[in-house]
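Worked example 3. Consider a protein that binds zinc ion.
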Amino acid sequence: MTAHPPPAAQPARRLLLVHAHPDDESINNGVTMAKYAAEGALVTLVTCTRGEEGEVIPPELAHLAPDRDDSLGPYRVDELAAAMDALGVTDHRFLGGPGRYRDSGMMGAPQNERPDCFWQAPLDEAAAHLVAVIREVGPQVLVTYDPNGGYGHPDHIQAHRVAMRGAELAARADFRPDLGGAHAIEKIYWNCNPRSVVEEGFARLRAAGRAFPGIATVDDVPGVLPDAEVTASVTGSAAHRAAKTAAMRAHYTQIAVDGPFFALSNDLGQPLFGTEHYQLVHGTPGAPAAGGREDDLFAGVGETVGTEERARIEEAAE
Ligand SMILES: [Zn+2]
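Given these inputs, the predicted complex is written out as C-alpha cells:
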C-alpha cells in the first residue's frame, strides 16, 4: 500500500537508514550507501543524535568533550557532512532536527537520566519525526539495528525501536494524516555480521600486527550472527570500499583508520569490512544470488527502475 506515490522526480529506488550517532552509518553501511548513491538510488540517512557523549580520540580536540566545552555535537555534525560527501549521499537529516535528542551515553551512565537524551524520548513522539520522513521520501527499503542495537548502547536500542515503530505508524492511514499519506516500507533489514567473516577478519588483523595498542574480540563487534541467519550481503566496487574508508576517516574524533582495520576510542583494532551484511526481518526476499543470500537490498521490490537510473546502475557496475 503506497497511498501517495512520491514525486516523479524521485529515483525509483529509495533506501532509508536509521542510525544512532554520526559514524554508525559509515562503519555499518558505508559501502552500501556509496553503492546505491552511485547507482542513482535515493539514499536517506536519519541520525537520531549528534553523538555529544562520544569519546574524543585526537588529543588536540579533547576540549570538545562533554565535561569540558561540550561542543562535540556541532563538531560531529560537520564530520557527518564530510562523511556524506565521501559517500555521495545528499539526503541526511537528524531525527527532529539537529540537537533535538541528545546522546544518552553508554548503558548505565548518569547521562541516561537526562530528560533531553534520546533514551528518555517517548517512543511515539520520536517515531512521529521518522513517520514524516518516511511519508515524504517513500522508501521501499529500511535498514536499522537489531533489538539490542547491535551491542546494547541505549541510543542504538532506541534507534531500533524508533525505526520499527516509525515504519509501522507510517503505514497506518489513521496515524497523523497531517504528516502525509500512508506509506508501507516493503523490506526491512537489520545490520549484522556473519561469525565466520568476523573471525576471519580478526585472524587477518592478528597476522598483520597493526599499530593499535590492542585488538578487539569477536564479542566487541555488533550484531554477530551464525552465518546461516544472514540473508543479504552487499559487496561494492573498490571505489565504494574506498568511499567507506574515506567516510570513516571523516569521523576523525571517533575513528582511527589503519589500512583495512580501524579502532574506536578504546584503541582496540578491528577489521573494516568491505562487504556489508543484513538480515531481512520484514518483506519477501528477492531471488537469492548464488550461495543463497540476496546481493541487492532492492531485490524483488515491486517498482520498475527508469532507463536513466538503469544506465547509472550499469555505469556504476563497470
Ligand atoms: Zn553509535
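Take a moment to read the result before moving on. The longest helix spans residues 154-170. The radius of gyration is 19 Å.
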